[in-house]
Amino acid sequence: MPVDITLTVNGVAYPLSVDPHASLLRTVRDDVGLTGAKEGCDDSECGACMMLVDGRPTNACSYLAVQADGSSVTTVEGLADGDRLAPLQEAFLVQGGVQCGFCTPGMLVSATALLARNPAPTEDEIRTAVSGNLCRCTGYDGIVRAIADAAARGSS
To answer: Which listed residue, 14, 43, 87, 135, has the most CB atoms within 10 A of its CB?
Structure first.
């Protein structure tokens, strides 16, 4: 039996009727139409589905949409300002933090949460913050450089 909820995603309220077992990832992708977050493992292991729920990085594949009712959800699409990339997104491009791009949305969301709580992280703190995000292409060095670069410029 569907449950009525209101998801606030990237500042926009979406009144929805969802299956009580629907994940936040499926709901945002299928019902809201934002497809930046990816389904990789569907088991909270890879981080490709990462979203911020009330500012906390959350594996949206294992988080129920009903749990997010009344919360503020930020997806990778919400990091940019319209067509203008966030400084962190720009740093990923400049520093070679993007290769195939599958992990990039989750990496950006995790890095955004890190820089919000720690604007000047060490390399070890950066690596720890993205340790829940698996990347098979870059070797992480470009990702770490990008996050450090954005932090050095004082922006996320």
So the answer is: 135
